[in-house]
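Please review the protein record below. Let me know how this chain folds according to its tokens.
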Amino acid sequence: MAMTDFSFLNLSEPQDIGGLSFSLGPRDDNTQSDSRLIPNVEVSMPDDSEQDQQQTRRSSWASEDGTKQDVLETSHKTAAEEVHSRLWYEAYNPSKTSTTSYKMYRRGSQCFQPRSHAQAIDEYYDEGESNPAQRIMMPDPQPPSLDASGDHEYCDDCETFGPNRSYCNVCTFSMCEYCWKRQLTHKNNASQNDIPHEKTPRSLARKTQAVFNPNIDEDERQKLHCEDVLTSWFGVHREDSARPLLRDYGRFEGLMASTRQLAEENHSYLDPSARYPSFVSFVGQTGAGKSSLIKLIIDLGAKTPALFDTPVVGAVGNTSPTSTDVHLYVDPPTADSDHPILYADCEGLEGGEREPVAAKAIKQRAKKAIPGVSDHSFHHVSERDLIWADKSWRKTREFAVRELYPRLLYTFSDVIVFVLKNPKVIESVLVKLVEWAAAALEGSSNQPVLPHAIIALNASENATSTELWDVDIATTTLMKEMSQTVFQNETLKKYVQFWHKRDKIIRTVEDLILSYYTSIKVVRIPTTGRPNLIAKQINDLTANIRSACQVSGRRKGDLRMLLNAEDMQPYLQYAFDHFSKSIESPFDFVQASFAHSPIPDDFGGNILKLAVQLMEAWKDRAGPRPIFEELAVVVASCIMLDATRHGILGESSYMTYCGDYESQFTFDAFREHFRNEVYVALHELLCNLPRNHLCADSPEINAATDQHKNKVLKPFFAHALEGNDTYDFSSHTVCFCCLFDFPEHTLPCGHVICTGCLKAYGHVTKEHTVEFWECPMDGKILGYTPFYLKPPHCGVRILTLDGTGGIIALGLVSKGWSVDDCTRKFENLCHKAFQERMMARGPFLGRLIRTYYHSLYGTAAIEGALKEAFTESADLFGAKPTSSGIYGIKVAVTATAVSSSVVLSNYNRISGTSLPYHFERPEKGCAELRLWEAARATSAAPLYFTPFNHAGSKQTYYDGGVHHNNPVKIADSERKLIWPDLKEPDVIISVGTGHNLTKLEKRKAAPFKPTATRGIIAQGAFLANMAKDHIAVSLDSEQTWKDFLASSKKSDDRFRYVRLNTSFPTDPPLLDDLSMLSELREMAKKQFAGQYQTNMLALKLVATSFYFQPDETDPLKRKEVTGYIRCRFADDDPRISALGTFIFEKTGIANEAYFLISE
């Protein structure tokens, strides 16, 4: 039965094919049809034909009891089913026609012609009639399946759909089980060109073919390269003769954020602080197949391949380099786990100065698609001048690939996969493997763990001996064959001598490799033709990669150098900074860790922080011994001071502190000496305390404080600054006055001290005011400086603002704006910030522009407006006290960094454990955010504004509303850490951005839907998911408030926890709908003005402006408690006058105000 391509049939007219006629039109009720097929198709059968007699015989198996059925009925039914099956197949496979049945495929000397299912049944019965005995033993053939959905596939032999079809990698046909067994080549397990006929899942065959023989033209390949640019991690950008730039494209933090979102959509909880990524770098010569291997790993490992980006493989026969720079991809099975594996695809070695195919494609398309784009690189998040590129040969592409990329990748990789395509040049590859590692190892010091090495022998011959496909055997064989190369190859001999000078004996090439790598494995990947073997070897490769990553992770954990995703980002940025300045000087992991300050916030860690700063101030003038001898007296004095503050008596108790510190210290050579120095100094200081007490006639705490400042701190810092008086001894994580508490108060000189030291070295005039005159560290006169502290009996009032309320909060507290000022300045800022990019609103081109720039609106406009509003130099943390009376109020905003939420604050507090967010507090002030930068970070709404890249902290921030649009839970958590003794706050007020009340109860969680595309569209979809729908966000904020109230037993006082949120009759306006600002303001006023809830809240705020302070008599010894009613505001605070006016207006002249005190 022949049939032309279905796409060319004219179904409006009756058609006659193989004796069957059918037409598209109104169907007669008596006509047989299948609703699963094409609707309104009428199939009619001829009354009489020889074919009917054959069909009668073919259909006899349909009767279970063996009785014969009506000849004409069964003939029509079977024939109709076969026509329907063919129609279905042709409709969904327009490129295939029934002429396939007549193609001849040669397998050696045999000819094979696929047969129809009807022919198979004819032969079956003919064989049974000629041999009845054999007929009885033969199983009945199964009827053809008409269901082409699910796992059902087409059999190219009998031309029917059904389950359990097997694809033959040699015949390139899919066959059912019956047809497969009929072929002699399959029965005899024959081979052709050393490739056996193997049953292969059709999906596997498609995936491997898409890698090795992709059926795409040059235009499609160019488009794929343009989409793949979004996977760029970092690279060198060159423009004319200018100095090259090292650019970071933000791929790492983007992957961490998107994979966390993927985990949430899959209902997997991931602690942001407990995600530890591993890097696997694929390196090798140009054309070795690095991109092909990564694509195979991802496509074969992904349940939903469309979710994951893959590299673009090079065209067959093209010798030009394919990819450019370094791209980053995620391993699908580990993407949503707490240990994601990331694959780095490095530009090929020995590619020369030829421009890669990807670079050409991107350059051509970018200039056409995006107006104003002059270069071919994707929009970067940061860039650095390559200072060392001062010669023309240092500016070349080859130099960057050979010298820069290895240092960066080797420094952070857990596994290095060196891909080789020609095993005959394995010696040169081993040389490259050693050279590549040696160049990188010379560029780093204190590297915690050496990476593992895997040699991937790509495109190995299918005729390779079976045992060599085993990884262990392949490794042993290759290392044995190349064992003596170290004494024959001139380059390797140099490295052998290098290690010999360092008292390490190298006997084999494996010994040499293991000097640069933790382990070495060899994995063979076959060439095309055997998909099953390819899949097996890829599985072996990924298994070895994951095993090596686990070993590396455990080792780093033992050394306390296992970095989570948040900590990894600053390390990467420091490495970019370092290698952009010099590729000769080593990158020191310990120095990088000091800059990021993962040092524990305990007494031992605090001493180490002071030792690091003393080392930096003295530079090369002193070694470890004099540094710790200098520190011994300071440590002893700090122990003495803390002991007197807490009433700890006796030398043995003091030495307990010193002992606890010792266990944190790692310089074993100085341990005993340091202990003795501290003990001697502490003993002398304790002996001086009674004499000071008698002479000064003061309590012991005052004597210890005076001795610590005048006898220890001033001499120490004076000596420390000799020869380097410009060095700033300051820390934002430890008070250098006592080494015990965290710093909170910034002195005019720039030093930051804790509250205990503020009270000890200042003059407490009232319960909440401290006057300061002199710096206790260097003795500088500061002049009169007042500090406001929260009285111990005063409650806490908390205000949280949804959405962009972070900007308003910063204005209210840090700038002292009034509510009216905030309203006016915020509206002015909005009009200046929302400056739309040219052509960014278009349907397709606009989408491309928004994805290219990560935003709809320009960056310069919003940053300029924020600098104008908050001033460019104002600090968020470390701001000096002012006379405005606003000092002492704590403010924090939320942002999103890498894959978790972060809190950016103007205060310090004790460290919390198991928090769903990260409290950002760097060690040095240079890494702190300015006030305008905090506002920029908290308002970087995805798709609206670009993420904010902060140079000081090396972090990239998105809008905090991505994870916490309503920050009430974070605010309450911070309140408990700052004031752990307070059970409940006086009041918590949560202000929303508005919501559609009618939709609040109707909303349901949307099911997870995989992204349908990759590349630039997938990136845009990810950003859109981060931005979320503004309606859903508003509803989420309301649900967050309900969850917060239900999470624990709150006070029965309904006005202690208040939520104010404007309700709309329709959906809330869009984030950038500036035309609605005035209307929203009036709507909120109308909704809340004069309401009972609003009036009661106002009275609650007035009442909580006062607190009760009991007298110092122990209340347990008395039946009644006496004390004072005090106001929380300072005497010179302008709010005092406003408070009095409000109380007077509410009570009137005739009514006297009174206080009701209750527990």
